[in-house]
Specification:
By secondary structure, this protein is an alpha+beta fold. The protein folds into three domains: about 140 residues, Beta Polymerase, domain 2 (2-Layer Sandwich), CATH 3.30.460.90; about 110 residues, no CATH class; about 140 residues, Immunoglobulin-like (Sandwich). It is built from twelve helices and 19 strands. Strands 1, 2, 3, 4, 5, 6, 7 and 8 form an eight-stranded mixed sheet that branches. A five-stranded mixed sheet has the order 13-19-18-15-16. A four-stranded antiparallel sheet has the order 12-11-14-17, with no helix packed on it. α2 crosses α4, α6 packs antiparallel against α7 and α9 runs antiparallel to α10.
Length: about 450
């Protein structure tokens, strides 16, 4: 168990943890649920009339598996997969319409539905295996179209090239529930989320970036190999899962669909992609091992932040800073450096008769929204040789969460410039390192009203 265990996950709804910062809020989950329920009800009613078939809907993907992430970039979107099933007994080709006609029928109904809703931005052009509807608030629903034979429990997916494609999203979900007993599912789901977040934040398409289903299969298959001690904390479990995944793909890089052995999931990456994935996991595992061996919570959190960026919280108590300083006494590096940050804030629009400028040391606030803020390291003359200064914004509060803007890396150097956009308590973290190791930390609290 590492020193940053409590920063991964907590039962307390008020504590800032990695898990809390990468998942949707309750309000976002409720908004998603209302939207897909409304869309599903509309499509089932209208498509039954248009096609004269019984219509069934079924959620799939990360929302169904309960491994959904919030958008990790302000430009990304929440994604829900809502399958629409036209039901008749027999093979798909026995239907009264072609695959493309069924798919077009769904598209047309979505376009009519969009005209009745104020929060829909657009209906996208049909994609190969689904239709997509975009909502305000960084959210879209993908609607794949299926044939369902209830008697034989078989499914087929309608594609844009007018073909029926073998596809059974229910089978993989049933396998997951069977493979992962209910009592261990919460931690398994968190591990899947941690790995998905790592891939999104650090890897690029075409360079060994794994799909969500590949990571889900690997974690579900390998988790039972963890000992009780290794499962006692999320950081330990994550490092162990990384080690097991490495061993697994070194021994056999072929990863098959557990419910269809003919489908090789790893083929989507190709041989070179699997080699790149192995290299990425080796690097991740190395950082995880260092974090677990760190002497202080600050050092462990900083190492995990190399993977999870601003989504990984830092400890904020003075006691933690004192422990960090104490741990540096025997270091061969320079003595502990305490960053002193002079903070100034100024309204972007001057208001007569109001306070328009604020300044303080290592703190600012309360200040209003729409202020420019400058953070300046004022004791830079005392920086030791080869020291580097890095700034990271970590936002908190309901407004930032609803906008999916929980922060960003704010650059390097002696000055950082930002602005106040969301009500709440936020932090600008200044971390000073020498030869790759932390020698100083200051958390600047920013209160916005």
């Amino acid at each position: 168990m590492g020193l940053a265990t409590s920063l991964f996950y907590s039962n307390s709804p008020d504590k800032q943890t990695l898990h809390r910062r990468i998942i949707p809020t309750n309000e976002q989950q409720e908004a998603q649920q209302q939207r897909w329920n409304d869309l599903a009800d509309y499509l089932k009613t209208e498509l039954r009339i248009k096609s004269n078939y019984s219509i069934y809907s079924w959620l799939q993907g990360s929302y169904k598996f309960a491994t959904q992430l919030r958008p990790l970039s302000i430009n990304d979107e929440f994604d829900i997969d809502l399958g629409i099933y036209f039901q008749w007994e027999g093979t798909p080709d026995k239907g009264n319409f072609s695959p493309l006609e069924f798919k077009n029928m769904v598209q047309q109904c979505m376009e009519i539905y969009a005209k009745t809703q104020d929060d829909i931005k657009q209906i996208a052009s049909p994609k190969m295996r689904c239709n997509r509807i975009h909502y305000e608030g960084n959210f879209h629903i993908d609607v794949p179209t299926y044939h369902l034979d209830n008697l034989h429990d078989t499914r087929a997916l309608a594609t844009e090239d007018n073909k029926w494609e073998d596809s059974d999203p229910k089978a993989i979900y049933v396998w997951f529930k069977t493979q992962v007993p209910e009592e261990i599912r919460p931690q398994v789901r968190r591990l899947i989320r941690y790995l998905k977040a790592w891939a999104i934040l650090n890897l690029e398409e075409g360079n060994g970036k794994p799909s969500a289903i590949l990571l889900t299969i690997l974690v579900a298959e390998l988790y039972p190999m963890l000992s009780e001690e290794q499962c006692s904390s999320d950081d330990e479990a994550l490092a162990t899962i990384l080690e097991l995944i490495l061993d697994r793909i070194k021994q056999n890089p072929t990863i098959r669909n557990p419910v269809d052995q003919n489908e090789i999931i790893s083929d989507r990456l190709g041989k070179n992609g699997m080699l790149a994935l192995q290299s990425h996991i080796e690097e991740f595992y190395s950082i995880a091992q260092k974090a677990l061996s760190a002497k202080t919570e600050f050092e462990a959190a900083d190492l995990w932040s190399k993977i999870y960026k601003h989504f990984f919280p830092l400890p904020e108590t003075r006691e933690q800073i004192a422990r960090f300083s104490e741990s540096r006494k025997d270091s061969l590096l320079a003595k502990v450096f305490t960053p002193r940050i002079y903070v100034t804030a100024e309204r972007k629009k001057y208001l007569p008769g109001k306070t328009n400028k604020w300044s303080k040391l290592n703190f600012i606030g309360p200040i209003p929204k729409n202020c420019s803020i400058t953070f300046k390291l004022i004791n830079s003359a005392e920086l030791p040789t080869h020291a580097t200064v890095e700034w990271t914004v970590r936002n908190e509060g309901s407004e930032a969460e609803m906008k999916n803007d929980l922060g960003h890396q704010a650059g390097k150097g002696l000055i950082a410039k930002e602005h106040s956009a969301y009500q709440g308590t936020h932090y600008m973290d200044c971390v000073v390192s020498q030869y790759g190791q932390i020698i100083g930390v200051t958390r600047v609290k920013v209160i916005v009203i």
